[in-house]
Amino acid sequence: MLIKFDKIMIKKFIWIMNALQVLEALASGKRLVGELYIDEVTRQLTFKAFNRSGKKRKKDKTIRHLEHGWLKESAKNLKYYESIPKKVGMASVISILERDTKIAKETLIDFELINRV
Fold first, then answer.
1. What is the pTM of this model?
2. Separation of alpha carbons 67 and 88, rounded Å
């Protein structure tokens, strides 16, 4: 694909490699990072967009589903999440937290024993 740039009667043509992908990325509002150089063979000004892929991250492994949350293992951390509705009352929230925390502790002990064997 060739693009013209008019500036004070000077016309420059830029050859864009993988032009369809570049135009799709530009149309979606993304910025492009690449290299702009003069091709030694064709002697044309050429733009080559870098094909950068994002870092792939492993999904967290769910160790246990709790009544109002979950316990998960990531690559570096253990994650404990609890979400309790306000309508159950403060006394119930405290008892639910204590019960689910106890279950999570027991699950972690079992998980550690299984992984050591």
1. 0.53
2. 14
